[in-house]
Amino acid sequence: MKNLLVTGGAGFIGSNFINHILDKRDDVFIVNLDKLTYAGNLENLKSSENKKKYLFIKGDIQNHELVEYIFTKYKIKHVINFAAESHVDRSILGSEVFYRTNVIGTNVLLETARRFEVERFLQISTDEVYGSLGETGKFTESTPISPNSPYSSSKAAADMMALAFYHTYQMPVVLTRCSNNYGPLQFPEKLIPLMIINTLNNKKLPVYGDGLNVRDWIYVIDHNKAAELVWEKGKVGEVYNIGASREMKNIEIVKLILKTLGKSEDMINYVKDRPGHDRRYAIDSSKIQNELGWKPEFEFETAIQNTIQWYLENKNWWERIINGSYLEYYNLQYKNR
Question: What is the CATH classification number for the domain harbouring 80?
Fold first, then answer.
């Protein structure tokens, strides 16, 4: 039995990961540590909450005493750190919480994991640490990091710290950097769910600048299967890029959602660009494909339709978020990514 601490497991990617592992495997006991900030939602884990090999603990990864208690009581030997403040726009409005959670919190986890001699520590990161690309090229694992936002700089700092623990203490750390995730359970501050929900509510769709910023999209299930593989078989001290090689301009995503839902492009509202908006991301994932045999299973055309359908069928889930005034806040701040 693998006793696994998953941090940030009530968020979008973390909850999808936990549900995937508990649905497919019987050899993992998961302790989910999550602070339940605005984007954490225990409803995401309804299918897992009553399973014997799962336990939820509400708490902050910055809490030394709590983290040490969890390692002691549940004999933790594996850690996957999904916990992060993760929205660029929020980091621009106020950066301190990003550095506290993403840097200090990661340090607490690493120090505790080192003392308890864990067998594997997987740090989940982002392609945004690489900065911005021109019209050609892709990020590889050897691309120098060059973060351009408070969010991405905090993740870059956590990455460097994790790798330093490997080099200094020979701690079994491995790191992944993924492209933009989409799929069920994504909080409405992100581009795809925000545009779907606004369209369903007949509200304007705010698009930054000219809408031509490019992101490389991956379905959350594909990402989590890759993360699982790296956790178990990735070479310690290594970085693995995870991407599906599906570049899309933001405006293309918006127009596709409108077309799918039978709405007019007149709903698009171009707004002032956000500060330091990276122009293009693109991931080269050949390393994980060649070394570990992973490849994305979902075609974008199918997965985006599945995602739109999920939001159509789970109106109660996102309406509760709207009733908490979150969506209105994001619309006012022109939340796009």
Answer: 3.40.50.720
